Amino acid sequence: QLQLVESGGGLVQPGGSLRLSCVASGLTLDYRAVGWSRQAPGKEHEAVSCINGGNNTPYHLDSVKGRFTISRDIAKNAVYLQMNNLKLEDTAIYYCRVRSGSSCRDPAIGPWGQGIQVTVSS
Questions:
Q1: How big is the chain by its Cα radius of gyration, in Å?
Q2: Contact status, residue 68 vs residue 89, Cβ threshold 8 Å
Q3: Which end of the chain offers a freer environment for a tag, N or C, measured as fewer CB atoms within 10 Å?
Q4: Which residues make beta-bridge pairs with 51?
Q5: In 3D, which of 69, 70, 72, 50 has the Cα closest to residue 59?
Q6: Taking the CB of residue 18, how many other CB atoms lie within 10 A of it?
Q7: Strand partners of residue 98
């Protein structure tokens, strides 16, 4: 069944960049929406970015618009989150989730991945 592995996080200075990777096994990601979310200590879990499965239309949290880009690689069965101009408030554990269908409004399916830590600090 579906398994997700997030990678690419780490420690970066404000203004720096990271590229998160979400690689799936057990299920192909084409025609399925995939989203990234995050949770910081003491904060609510929040959706960050999502990409539709059919037309690849992206959606972003207002605070990351213009800084984050979500994309997919069908051959690698992966979805990426390119994060540029990182800010202190971007510090969180990031997770990817696969939707049941092609729309970002469809419910997420399968288990959570391990999550990946992103720390922005000077």
A1: 13
A2: no
A3: C
A4: 34, 58
A5: 50
A6: 20
A7: 34, 109
Closest listed residue to residue 89, CA positions, set 57, 33, 48: 48
Q: Which two tokens stand for residue 59?
A: 């959606």
pLDDT tens, residue by residue, 92-114: 999 999 999 999 999 999 989 99
Helix, strand, or coil (residue 90): helix
pLDDT tens by residue, 37-73: 999 999 999 999 999 999 999 999 999 999 999 999 9
State the Cα–Cα distance between residues 76 and 33, nearest whole angstrom.
Answer: 16
Nearest to 118 by CA among 5, 44, 37: 37
Q: Which of 53, 36, 121 is nearest to 87 (CA)?
A: 121
- Could you give the CA distance from residue 99 to residue 87 in angstroms, rounded to a whole number? 28
Distance CA 24, CA 78 (A): 6
Rounded CA gap, 57 and 54, in Å? 8
